[in-house]
Design goal:
Structural class: alpha+beta
Oligomer: single chain
Distance between the termini: 32 Å
Strand order of the largest sheet: 4-5-1-2-3-6
Order of helices and strands: HHHHEHEEHEEHHE
Helix content: 40-55%
Number of domains: 2
């Protein structure tokens, strides 16, 4: 997986001049800063985990039970069981740094989207990103495009088996994404 230009093979194997310079110590960073600003490297890593589980199902936990999942992972599945849509995104207009950081957004239905993020506690977003990683590794979701992911058939089936009582304490950490 290579989401940034590789200076040795980019532009036909020759470094592109930057500001008219042929200096080999200066990498070609065209677009890199913008890509980093929207978490392309991290989102690409999650997409890779989904693809790996899709094409190597014997290494993924294809028959994973909900008991093997963390509470946060079950909460994600529970919220996504209707629409199946998940999104990793940054909020560049957030006031605090922690509001701008990458977070998991779960589309509950057509009209409601919740985000696992707390402006006062970065650990909330990190815990749910880790739980999303758990779902990717288990082969329960697939990458659709950019930062958008969805549950796959196994993900939908497992999500239907999760009841609100099992995940109540974790659901309190989800916030309406329009409030962020």
């Amino acid at each position: 997986m290579n989401y940034l230009p590789n200076d040795e093979t980019f532009h036909g194997g020759k470094r592109a001049p930057i500001d008219g310079s042929e200096n080999p110590r200066i990498p070609n960073l065209h677009g890199t800063w913008d890509a980093l600003g929207i978490s392309v490297p991290t989102i690409s890593a999650y997409a890779y985990l989904c693809a790996h589980a899709l094409f190597h199902p014997h290494q993924a936990s294809s028959s994973i039970s909900k008991e093997k999942l963390s509470g946060q992972a079950k909460a994600i599945l529970y919220l996504a069981k209707q629409s199946g849509a998940l999104e990793l995104k940054v909020m560049p207009r957030g006031f605090r740094a922690t509001e701008r950081f990458l977070a998991l957004h779960v589309h509950v239905n057509e009209d409601e989207c919740l985000v696992f993020q707390d402006a006062n506690d970065l650990r909330v977003a990190i815990q749910y990103l880790h739980a999303f990683r758990e779902l990717c590794l288990a082969g329960l979701c697939i990458h659709q495009l950019h930062g958008e992911f969805s549950l796959n058939q196994s993900g939908f089936e497992l999500a239907q088996s999760i009841h609100e009582q099992e995940v109540e304490s974790w659901l309190t950490q989800a916030q309406n994404s329009s409030a962020m």
